[in-house]
Each structure stands twice: as C-alpha cells, then as structure tokens.
Specification:
The protein is α/β, with parallel strands linked by helices. It has eleven helices and seven strands. Helix 4 (73-87) packs parallel to helix 6 (114-137). The relative contact order is 0.13. It binds nicotinamide-adenine-dinucleotide.
C-alpha cells in the first residue's frame, strides 16, 4: 500500500511508551505519528537502555527520551516534569507496555507465582492507571486529549498459552472504561486497541505464539494485521476524526473476533484427520 501521510496530527504533542526495538508496535506507531506531523517524547523502562535501540528511533523522529519505569509513581512524576518543560500539556498518550512474568518463566496458570503475577498486572495494566493518574496530578494532559492502550482478545476469550496475560488485559480494558467515564468530563478520551498476534519481542515471548499467529491468520477474512496497519489505526484514534469515540475496546484483527471457523481451517483440519485415518 502507498505510504501516504495526511497531516492528521499536525500541532499535536504527546508521549509514546513502549518502543523497544524496530519490531515493537510502539516503534511503528512513533514512525506513523511522526509522518502525520505529531511530536512526542519517547519513554521506556531504564532497563531498555541496555536491551533496546530506542536512541535510533529518537534520532530518526527528532524526539527526546525520558526513561521511566511505568510501575514507579516517582519516575512517572519525574517524567511529567520533563514533559511539562518541553510541551506544557500533551494531546495524546500511547501506552504500549506489557510483560507476563509467569508466561516468560513458563509457570502454568494453575501454579502462578503470585509475586510475578502481581508484577505482571502492575506492568501490563496498572501502569496505564499510574500514567493517566500521574498526568492528571501534574495537570499535564490537555482537554480533548486522546489516550490509546494496546490490548488482546485474550481479555475476553481463553487462548490457553496467554495465561495470566488474559487477566492483565481484562484489567487493562476495565481501567479504560473506569477512567473513560471520569476523563470524559474534561473531553479526554481513552480507548484500547485490541491487536491481533504480531511478531514482536513481547509477542514471541508467549509459548505457542507461532501457532496462535497462524490460527488467527487462517481464520481472519483479511488475515493478521501487521504493526504498520496497527499504527495507522492508532493515528486515527489520536486524531480529531475520532473525537467522539471513548471507553471502547476496538478490535484490529482482520475480522478474527467475529469468526467461528473458516474454510481454510476446515481444509487444514480435514487434511490432519485424513492423515490420522490413514495411519
Ligand atoms: N505482539 C502481539 O502479538 C500483541 C498483540 C496484542 C497486543 N499486544 C500488546 O502491545 C503492547 C506492545 O507490545 P509489543 O508486542 O510491541 O512488544 P514489545 O516487547 O516491543 O513492547 C513491550 C514494551 O513494554 C516495555 N516495558 C516492560 N516493562 C516496562 C516497565 N516496567 N516500564 C515501562 N515499560 C516497560 C518494554 O520495554 C517494551 O518496550 C503490549 O501491551 C502487548 O501486550 C501485543
């Protein structure tokens, strides 16, 4: 598809959390926001200095970086002090932060380590609350701002390998609604974009990710959307074109969430069953 820009975010200033390296969804979002005329501060956990390549994105988009652990109220407060110095108030926030500690360490759902579970919920869901709450406390979020977070359909349905992250996404989406009501009084909107499986560091940390990816791709009429198309949808949600949309969980999944089974998958299953019958 032709890479067109429309100046949809001209004059808007914001913060983008969660770009780690080129495959990150937030990386693609930052590139598209930049192409649409938006300016932003990039943020990630201090540990990402070692494991990621955020400097490269900052240089490419002419952005500053403020390192902050999104589970630390102090670091978030310091981040907003920096943001206020640079921009005054922000017009948009992108929260693309997630990590499942039990998932990474292959602890089954039936035997979660609760310290890790609490950390998973804190990083992947409560961090959104901390970021919004911290921004309000510093009066750093402009009226009519737009906030977008990234979710997954594991919040509504069971994808066995997604485990504790399903709980984290359910909490995340609930925070979107709870805050949406309160922020609406200031004209601020907040939505979660529920993205299909996407090949990133967080994505491939999930056991059986390739199977989940293929399954979704075979069922979705449009196939799995990549990080670039997710970035396009995010831009539309940050723009004035969607100014009356709030408190929604918006599926960006090529139609997956409305499907049961597809001809493609039936054909695959039939092949497997034939194979079993022949043996
Ligand atoms: N990849 C997928 O298949 C997929 C599908 C649906 C939703 N999502 C969601 O998209 C978002 C972005 O994930 P991604 O797939 O681009 O992977 P990613 O690993 O590139 O991004 C996750 C980010 O979270 C950051 N992070 C972790 N702990 C943090 C902390 N304490 N403070 C601040 N930042 C912290 C990481 O440094 C990283 O930049 C996540 O919320 C993820 O759950 C991903």
């Amino acid at each position: 598809m032709e890479n067109k820009a429309y100046g949809l975010l001209k004059g808007k200033k914001g913060i983008i959390f969660g770009a780690l390296e080129e495959r990150s969804i937030a990386w693609a979002i930052a590139e598209k926001v930049h192409a649409e005329g938006g300016e932003f501060i990039l943020s990630n956990a201090p540990v990402a200095k070692r494991v990621g390549t955020l400097d490269k994105l900052a240089e490419q988009t002419g952005s500053d970086i403020i390192w902050a652990d999104a589970t630390s109220d102090e670091e978030i407060a310091a981040l907003y002090d920096g943001v206020k110095e640079t921009y005054g108030k922000v017009d948009f926030i992108v929260h693309a932060i997630g990590m499942g500690l039990n998932v990474r360490k292959k602890k089954p759902y039936e035997a979660l380590n609760y310290n890790w579970y609490a950390k998973t919920l804190d990083i992947s869901a409560i961090s959104l609350h901390r970021i919004v709450s911290g921004g309000l406390a510093k009066d750093a979020i402009a009226d009519n701002a737009s906030i977008v977070t990234l979710s997954y359909i594991g919040a509504q349905r069971i994808f066995s390998a997604y485990s504790e992250m399903g709980d984290a996404k359910a909490l995340l989406e609930s925070i979107v609604r709870s805050f949406g009501y309160r922020l609406g009084k200031k004209g601020i909107r907040i939505n979660s974009l529920s993205q299909a499986p996407t090949r990133t560091v967080a994505g491939s940390g999930i056991g059986g990710f390739d199977a989940m990816f293929e399954f979704a791709d075979k069922i979705s009429p449009l196939g799995n959307p990549d990080a670039q198309s997710c970035a396009d949808y995010t831009v539309s949600l940050l723009s004035d074109l969607t100014r009356m949309v709030t408190m929604q969980n918006l599926f960006h999944d090529g139609g997956f969430s409305s499907m049961g089974i597809s001809d493609d998958l039936i054909a695959e299953l039939a092949k497997i069953m034939e194979g079993q019958g022949a043996s």
